[in-house]
Automatic annotation (TrEMBL):
Its EC number is 2.7.2.11. Its main location: cytoplasm. This is Glutamate 5-kinase. It comes from Blastococcus carthaginiensis. Catalyzes the transfer of a phosphate group to glutamate to form L-glutamate 5-phosphate. SMART domains: PUA. The lineage of its organism: Bacteria, Bacillati, Actinomycetota, Actinomycetes, Geodermatophilales.
Amino acid sequence: MTPAAARPAIAGAGRVVVKVGSSSLTTLPGGLDVDRLTALVDALAAVRASGRQVVLVSSGAIAAGLAPLGLYGRPRDLATAQAAASVGQLRLVQTYADAFARHGITVGQVLLTADDLTRRSHYRNARRTVERLLDLGVLPVVNENDTVATEEIRFGDNDRLAALVAHVSQADALVLLSDVDGVYDGDPRTGPAQLVDTVRDPADLASVVLGSASRNGVGTGGMATKVEAAFIAAHAGVPVVVTSTPQAAGALDGDRVGTLFAPMGKRPSARQFWLRYASRPRGRLLLDDGAVAALRERHASLLAAGITGVAGEFLADDPVELVGPDGVVVARGLVAYDAREMPRLLGRKTGDLPAEYRREVVHRDEMVLVGRLR
């Protein structure tokens, strides 16, 4: 898909994921802003009325819980943040349900932690759930499950979650909404800055310094997280627009608003995408130069002869990183052996191994090469 065709493709997308941040839905003193939320719902309802499917990824649970609990800032301790999410998520989804009901649209709540997408079986379950909701005519409202998520199993921000959901739901387009019009080549709050219209390649943003905080103090992401998420989706063949929430309708209609990230690759299989972007490696295999060349140049399977070391505790079929002598991650893959079995295999030719160990350590069909996104 060419950049010129990407905006019309978004306008014609049969299934689109829309992500909105806390800063667009809430204010620090007043909590949930119903007028802002309703305006977004009206725009998404118009998309639904045109026969297209919508998946909404919405932040705002913790922020929506601050005012009812008498809190005046985002909690710094996990327990209070989880309590705010418990109160706020209820208010958030009920407000969405009431607003969409006025358009005759039923919503379904889908709460996820990173663990739900880093585990392969959970990833498949999430995919089936979202697909079935859409088949039933329901608009899924997805959020991170902040009530139970700990630092170890958090996505960190809902931008990355939205990119993963775009692939999980097999969406045709992704729109990332915030309180900023798009990606600028500088900070428009401190001096002259130009809106970046289209990103065709990571090199287009190589000299751009990206912000990392929301403007009103209730969000956790910033433009850096949106760009990272946009690259994840674009490299998976999904066109992305990053813009402000008031411009949501224009972005969904294919208007020239915000910053367009044109598709930068073909849509990978669900397994390849999961391995690269959603899996959580349980360990590392250290490779020699010959093994690195075989993986990169011939996309060969990894054999024991090319492995020089092992790190971490993992079981057979767990995802692991494959790392070159320079410390750079070359690939991710599903390992065929437990970590405790690996030391006896290191550096040995396949023919010299006992019969039960004469298979690939990581088969090429269970592996994806890893490169920098930007």
